[in-house]
Amino acid sequence: MAVRGLIAAGERLGIAENSIRVALARLLAAGQVERDERGRYGLGAQAAAVRGQVTSWRTTDERLVPAWDGSWIGVHRSGHAPRATAKSQRRRERALRFLGFRRLEGALEVRPNNLRGGVADARARLLALGLEPQALVFQLNEFDAATEMRARRLWDAAALRSGYQRSLAELADSEERLPRLSERDAMVESFLLGGRVIRQLVLDPLLPEPMVPRAERTALLTALRRYDQLGRQCWSSFMRSVGAPHLHAPHDTRMAHGPERLHAAGAV
């Protein structure tokens, strides 16, 4: 998207032009965005891992094994790692948060081993997202009863479930309201609400049953896919007016590999 389109979108969302330009300059310097020969901006190579994590919300259910065997994935930060900088610490914490890890004790973080690909895939994704290479990623089995109970209580399952229900209701209310709103108001509402629920699913720890009923998360995912289609429609005229490609939502549930463009419910 050209900078004029980003500024116009920011104006609708209450973001000043100067703030847009300053943010673009910083992101460009960090490699998070790139600029082509026509002066259009898109996500850069440094944002690839995060982009892949964010755009994978469509395939949330496909990322899980059918049944959890009770084992865990552990991450232990090595004491031999170089002294962490504030930036590397933020990248590590972001990587662990994206994959739903919680601290069990000391330098040990855990999550249920219910992700497809198991430890090997989790290790690769964590490293791509910023976990230090010296960290140990491994499988844990047969906690004693007290530790097992403590591990399961690291996540607030009740809060997750109430969050699913609240977002499901908000999507339904907004879906009914969008056709009656002005184009501008529909753009803003679909962007803000859709983006918030996408963030909710992207950061969801994807807990297995019996910790959290899978059907409740699936219901929210189904509603968000439908809302995403509506949000894209709300933004389609604007996207054409600024000469930016308007991408339709994927017809299947495979993760898109191309750069995601700004649209109503697809940016976080």
Walk me through the topology.
Elements: H1 3-12, H2 17-29, E1 33-35, E2 41-43, H3 48-55, E3 72-76, H4 86-98, E4 102-105, E5 108-112, H5 118-129, E6 136-140, H6 145-152, H7 157-177, H8 183-202, H9 214-241
Antiparallel strand pairs: 1-2, 3-5, 3-6, 4-5
Helix pairs in contact: 4-5, 7-8, 7-9, 8-9
Characterization of this structure:
This protein has 268 residues and is α+β, with helices and mostly antiparallel strands. It folds into 3 domains: 3-46, no CATH class; 50-62 and 155-241; 71-140, Alpha-Beta Plaits (2-Layer Sandwich). The protein is 50% helix and 9% strand. The protein contains 9 helices and 6 strands, in the order ααββαβαββαβαααα. The strands form 2 sheets. Strands 4-5-3-6 form a 4-stranded antiparallel sheet, covered by helices on one side. Helix 4 (86-98) packs antiparallel against helix 5, helix 7 (157-177) packs parallel to helix 9 and helix 8 (183-202) runs antiparallel to helix 9. The radius of gyration is 20 Å and the shape is globular.
